[in-house]
Structure formats: structure tokens, C-alpha cells
Known about the structure:
Blueprint: E1 6-11, E2 14-21, E3 26-30, H1 44-49, E4 53-57, H2 76-89, E5 95-100, H3 102-113, E6 118-124, H4 133-136, H5 147-150, H6 156-162, H7 165-175, H8 197-200, H9 213-226, H10 229-236, H11 238-244, E7 257-262, H12 274-277, E8 285-291, H13 298-301, H14 303-317
Parallel strand pairs: 3-4, 3-5, 5-6, 6-7, 7-8
Antiparallel strand pairs: 1-2, 2-4
Helix pairs in contact: 2-3, 7-9
Amino acid sequence: xxxxxxxxxxxxxxxxxxxxxxxxxxxxxxxxxxxxxxxxxxxxxxxxxxxxxxxxxxxxxxxxxxxxxxxxxxxxxxxxxxxxxxxxxxxxxxxxxxxxxxxxxxxxxxxxxxxxxxxxxxxxxxxxxxxxxxxxxxxxxxxxxxxxxxxxxxxxxxxxxxxxxxxxxxxxxxxxxxxxxxxxxxxxxxxxxxxxxxxxxxxxxxxxxxxxxxxxxxxxxxxxxxxxxxxxxxxxxxxxxxxxxxxxxxxxxxxxxxxxxxxxxxxxxxxxxxxxxxxxxxxxxxxxxxxxxxxxxxxxxxxxxxxxxxxxxxxxxxxx
Length: 320
């Protein structure tokens, strides 16, 4: 593939390799784990055509962006400050924010920490919640494998994933997609705590229709460059997230917001009752919708449908 023209943008003490395109109100798209800017490749041109300026960074630790070494360098306040600084570096005092997976967690917290600059927020795939002890150690799971707990020890998961980057990414992508058997991702809980991530994710016989060999090769190149330490350090900051942001306890989102997820996303089953409490966190939740036939990677599993919903939200809150 031909890479787009990147900008290396200075923000909050790091450089973020960023795709910047278009003119108009700023829309920042944040990827999660284990991804990079390339996750949003199908959304960039339609957003530009609709009259928005789009900025899609590799987040710190990922792809071609800075990779500070310390775990604390990836705490939620730093990640949110990266986003605000990116907007200001592009000349904007306000921006619209759309995040997916860890990018969604960062988007939610950026919106709460910086409500005057983050004027709208849309989350994909991960409902907002305050990460507590049960996030790391689900009740009754002490002797079972749980990936978030497994990620906490520096160096362990990195060594496993970097031993065969292609195989690691392929298994993770497919296990979380709608192509996998229902809730395959959560079958990790059937394995003992002593297992590794590749022990619980099955091999993949063939690529799904939404992931070409060229796509996979691009992702492999990014992670062969960056490694997995920075990306996995995000998980190592979950235990401190609430303590670092005590002022957010009970705070509601005041800006227009929306949530979109794939109907077959196993992440939605971490708490099967999430729809009962999630809307209560918002003063202006415009919609909560699902895309049929999509799993966790809805931007690439169902790109047209995902783009349409993002544009529906933006046209309502930031008309062009």
C-alpha cells in the first residue's frame, strides 16, 4: 500500500505520527490495541468529503509515534493531554473526538477531563466505566486466565507477542471479530491462570474477508517497529486510573455523545448489564446503536455502516 503523507506533531512532550487531511471542524480519531492509525483507513476520505478536517494519530507507544519507556508515561492524564495538545498544534481550541477500544477509553476520559475543548465525543466498542479492582481480577477468576491481569507484568506479554508478530496479531484480530465463534474471546476464562495469550487464542486457518494479506503485512511492520511495550503499558495504568482522576467520580458527560458497537463484539459481554447503567453517565447521549454482523473491529468489518453512523452523529452536532 502507499502510505499517506504523515505529519510528526509535537504534543505534550512526544511526537505523534498523524494523518491529517481535509478542512473544516476538527475530528480526531483514536485507535486502540493492537492497532494504529490504519484501523481508520476507510473513514478518513468520507469524513474529509463531508467537510471535516481529520487527524488520525498513532497514539504514543504505537507505530511511528514516540515510545517513552516508563509505565507512568501512559497514564490516562498523559494520554488525554496528548489529544488536547494535538488539536492545539493543528490550530484548534475545540475538537470532535471519536475513539475505539483503548482509544475509546482515552476519548471518554479526555471528554471528562477537558470538557471545554472536547466539544463532542463518540465511543466505539467500549462503554464508559470507572476501572476498579474487578477489571483486573474478576470475581471468582483467581485461578483462570484473564488477559488484563496477564498484561500487568512488564516484559511477559511483550516477549510472547513479539516472538511471532504476524501470528499474534492475526489471532487477536480474528478472535475478537464477528467471524469467530460466538464469544470465543471469552473462552480464555476456561484456561488456567498459568496460560499465555497464544495458548488461549486459536490458530487462524484463513484470513477473514475484511483483512487482506497487504493489511496484515502493514500491521506487522508497525509492530515490528514499535514493539508491544508501549501499547501494553496502557493496561498497566488501569490500576491507577481512578486514583489519578478522583474528580471524575460520578461526573457526567456534558457534551453531545454517542456510542456505537458491533452486535457480536465480545467486549460488550464483560458486564452483561452495561446498558442499564451506561446511559446514566451522559446528559446528552444522542444514540446508542449496534451494527449487525460486526464484532470488535467494526471500522473494517463493516466500514460503510460505521462511517455512516459517525457522519450521522457529526452532522447532528457539528453540521457542515
